């Protein structure tokens, strides 16, 4: 069974739009868990544009594992080591971007990332690296001791030619390196089935589409349908 991690960032985006206390992303996380989510993902950005510091301990206290998405900064490493979530996924982050625009350049920032990954692992946190489906990036992730890589599926989701084949090749490299394979970004009901067929895939992390779909069908049914689609024969 492929696990489904539900990213609840954009429930917080809606909350913050008017500065009120609702909708509460923690309530959304609880509902997603009730309807089959295997974990909750939340990205505490440096500018705090959606998830806030006070949200994180409340999410950590839930029954499902918390995947803390974060930039590889000293501040975020410090927060993560205090919080000790189940996992941390290191992602690239730019203030001007609307959403994460690509994978982390692990190979190009190896010396910067190595001590941060080591500190997170020493705190008992499972480290994942959000990377493009590139052999060099995957091999460097293994060298750095990160047990998990999450392949960026954004180019595939936007219809770039050859991306599904590239993802399949990357999945094979992930297996050869002895890493656990996760994937995510831009996935919907329509485009997720081929990604769910990636060999060795253990987990998908999906957020914006599920929160958008919740406007029409409710978050619970949206989570349930996605869970079915990624695991149906």
* Outline type: globular
DSSP summary: helix tally: 11
Quote the beta fraction.
15-25%
Number of domains: 1
Helix content: 40-55%
**Cross-sheet strand order for the largest sheet:** 1-2-3-4-5-6-7-8
Task: Report Rg.
Answer: 17 Å
Strand segment count: 8
CATH architecture designation: Alpha-Beta Barrel
User: Kindly state the mean pLDDT as a whole number?
Assistant: 96
- Spans of at least 5 consecutive residues whose pLDDT stays below 50 are none
The main sheet comes to:
8 strands, parallel, barrel
CATH topology: TIM Barrel
The N- to C-terminal Cα distance equals 11 Å
SSE ordering:
EHHEHEHEHEHEHHEHEHH
Catalytic activity: 3-amino-2-oxopropyl phosphate + 1-deoxy-D-xylulose 5-phosphate = pyridoxine 5'-phosphate + phosphate + 2 H2O + H(+)
Binding site for 1-deoxy-D-xylulose 5-phosphate: 9-10, 45, 50, 99
Function: Catalyzes the complicated ring closure reaction between the two acyclic compounds 1-deoxy-D-xylulose-5-phosphate (DXP) and 3-amino-2-oxopropyl phosphate (1-amino-acetone-3-phosphate or AAP) to form pyridoxine 5'-phosphate (PNP) and inorganic phosphate.
Active site: 43, 69, 185
């Amino acid at each position: 069974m492929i696990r489904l991690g539900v990213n609840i960032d954009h429930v917080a985006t809606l909350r913050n739009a008017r500065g009120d206390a609702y909708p509460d992303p923690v309530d959304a996380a609880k509902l997603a868990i009730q309807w089959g989510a295997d974990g909750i993902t939340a990205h505490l950005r440096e500018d705090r544009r959606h998830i806030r510091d006070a949200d994180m301990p409340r999410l950590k206290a839930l029954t499902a594992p918390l995947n803390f998405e974060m930039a590889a900064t000293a501040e975020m490493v410090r927060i993560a080591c205090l919080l000790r979530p189940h996992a941390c996924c290191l992602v690239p982050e730019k203030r001007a971007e609307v959403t994460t625009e690509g994978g982390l350049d692990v190979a190009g920032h190896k010396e910067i990332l190595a001590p941060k990954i080591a500190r997170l692992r020493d705190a008992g946190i499972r480290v994942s690296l959000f990377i493009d489906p590139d052999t060099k990036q995957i091999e460097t992730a293994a060298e750095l001791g990160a047990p998990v890589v999450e392949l960026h599926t954004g180019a595939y989701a936007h219809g770039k030619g050859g991306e599904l084949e590239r993802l399949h090749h990357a999945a094979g490299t992930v297996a050869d390196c002895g890493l656990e394979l996760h994937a995510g970004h831009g996935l919907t009901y329509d485009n997720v089935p081929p990604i769910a067929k990636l060999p060795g895939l253990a987990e998908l992390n999906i957020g914006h589409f599920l929160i958008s779909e919740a406007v029409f069908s409710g978050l619970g049914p949206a989570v349930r349908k996605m869970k079915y689609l990624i695991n149906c024969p």
